[in-house]
Hints:
Blueprint: H1 3-35, H2 38-57, H3 62-68, H4 74-105, H5 111-118, H6 120-125, H7 131-137, H8 142-166, H9 170-190, H10 202-233, H11 236-249, H12 251-260, H13 264-270, H14 275-312, H15 320-326, H16 329-345, H17 349-369, H18 374-400, H19 405-429, H20 436-461, H21 467-491
Amino acid sequence: MSVQQGMLSGAKWALVAKWYNRLIGICSTLILLRLLDVSDFGVVALATFFVSLFAALSQAGAVRYILVKDNLTPDQISSVWSLNIAIRALFTMFLIASAPLLAAYTNAPEMRLVLTVISFNLLISSFRNVGLDLQEKTFNFRQLTLTLIVSKTVSVIVSIGLALVWQNYWALIVGTVVLQSVEVIAGYWLCAYRPYWCSKHWKEQWRFSKWTVATSIFGYLRSRIDILLLGNLVSTKSVGLYSTAQEFSWLPMTEITFPLQRGLLAGYSSVKSSMTKMRDIACNQLALNFALLVPSAFGTFAVAELFVKVVLGPNWLEAIPVVKHVTWLMMSAMLYLPLMPSLIAREKFKLVLVLDSVIITLVCAGFYLFRDQGIEGLSYIRAIVALIFSVFLLFVYKYTLEVGLRFFSKLSFVVFTPTLLMYWAVNWCTQLPYSDGITLAISVGTGVSVYVPSLLLLSFFYRDQLPQVWNLCIGIVHVINNQIAKLDWRTQ
């Protein structure tokens, strides 16, 4: 199987898992939004942040080690699995001991018990079957996909059931513990590989992992530093508004773009000796990200008010401006996502740390300079920081992957032109005198109807100067035609 075929296979299975999990996840979230208070989601967002931060601190780099290193022995594989368990057991105790201090930092006394309970997710997750990572290395994602589907299904059922009875944040907390537990169990049930305790290669693996730990910590802080700062600056209700607005406004990125990047690190690692091949992978992924996320950001901004009213409900109207602001974070993410795996594949960890440090510093400075602006003002500052960082990343691409501003200029013209046409059409539709639900449906349908043909037409005219977008469009058309052909064959 070629690198491109492997990445497409990985994307397919990742999309299956993501779309299934998001389908039942959205259904459960919409139910929970009406059963629980806004502040409950703030408590869960803060608790999840801290346990994920400690997970980053205790990151032994098992996945990256297996994906990047070649010709691994069974002892090496089991050794990195064992190292992960040892480190996470230690940090589970650290998190439990830190719970009182973290509760004081967030001005939420209830966080102490919440963090104590959710900290066990660290220890549970460390027992995950490392055989799933071996299969990812060979672009076999079937067992990993099934594991995610089974665990998500069980956790959703548990969360909704407990929410109906308890009607507080404990339903969500217990649901996360169930999710981790079932994912570990399903991993051993579906994957035949069995690691064993081994400490033979810990010293060697720690030399690799120390950079992985640093990049994991800074990478997580880069993506979630806003939640950490908001936990101290605003109420848990405001944190709940921000985290929920972010989750829904980022749906195009988390549910489409993220899965399509599954296998990207493995792909980069297999061609890391050739800058030309790495650049080709990056340009193809950038074309995909631009084509999906630029219209998504503009579209979400245009329909934010209707979306909140229809989807989130009347208790969440304060989230409307926050949704409008945080959607622009996708603009920096679409550049950052293809860049990071390329740097990790070439073990340029110091540059990764520098990039993460830049965005963390900018967010911290912005939030504390404007800390009295409330959640609406702070979300606006976060969007401005993301756009500034996007400009900085353009120059990093030139330095690391030899992707120049000329490529980005052509790509921006081909994608932004139909996007602006789409935005104008959607903005006009939002003023229609129908119910909010009907107007939202018309607006979204109009946006797709305007954007897709416009992109196809413009990418056709620029197919020689910018083949990545045209090839992307042709590839999607072929996939759709193949699916239609299969459907016709089955119905005959």
